[in-house]
Amino acid sequence: MDQSYKWNNYISRFHWRHVDLMDVLSGFQGRGRIGLDQMSQLLGFPGKLGLSGEGVWDAHIQGRSEDIRNYCETDVVNTYLIYLRFELNARPPDARGARAGGRDRPRGLALAERPHLRGYLDAWAKCGS
Predict the structure, then answer these.
(1) pLDDT band at 42 (very low <50, low <70, confident <90, very high)
(2) What is the SS3 assignment for the chain?
(3) Exposure of 45 by Cβ count < 10 A (0-12 exposed, 13-18 middle, 19+ buried)?
(4) Nearest CA to 119 among 53, 52, 56, 49?
(5) Buried b / exposed e along 66-102 (16+ C-beta atoms within 10 A)
(6) pLDDT at residue 103 above 60?
(7) Do residues 37 and 45 touch, judged by C-beta distance below 8 A?
(8) Of the chain's two ends, which shows fewer C-beta atoms within 10 Å, N or C?
(9) Residue 120 Cα to chain centre, angstroms
(10) CA distances (Å), 59 to each of 64, 65, 78, 93, 116, in order?
């Protein structure tokens, strides 16, 4: 058995086998935390569009499962773009050239026919990122 796994596993937060962006970007300090929406906007991404976390329960009660799914999908896009930007800055300078770091629009979004993803791209274009 790999002895390093004892402390280098998913449960332990001080390793690189998985990355909790909020932990890493806050320096593992509670007072330095910032929400996904604010971090996205700081980096020039649209952030949350439409529904927010506080509205998910009401949307569920109202049977608006598509709105909840759209909200979750755009959260995933925001998280992915933040992660790309993090990777760009975490890599040594000689390895940075190969990464776009979230500056280029993800091709999958450009090809998506879903209105909420098209809306995300339109909002991103307005951000100027």
Answers:
(1) very high
(2) CCHHHHCCCCCCCCCCCCCCHHHHHCCCCHHHCCCHHHHHHHCCCCCCCCCCHHHHHHHHHCCCHHHHHHHHHHHHHHHHHHHHHHHHHHCCHHHHHHCCCCCCCCHHHHHCCCHHHHHHHHHHHHHCC
(3) buried
(4) 49
(5) ebbebbebbbebbeebbbbbbebeeeeeeeeeeeebb
(6) no
(7) no
(8) N
(9) 13
(10) 5, 7, 21, 45, 16
Are the C-beta atoms of residues 119 and 51 closer than 8 Å to each other? no
Q: Give the amino acid at 120.
A: Y
The first and second tokens of residue 92, run together, are 């040594």
CA-wise closest residue to 68 among 83, 48, 45 = 48
Q: What is the pLDDT of residues 63-77, one digit of tens each?
A: 999 999 999 999 999
At which residue do the structure tokens 């499962």 appear?
65
Alpha carbons 44 and 85: distance in angstroms, whole number = 11
Q: Which residue has the tokens 């109202």?
A: 62
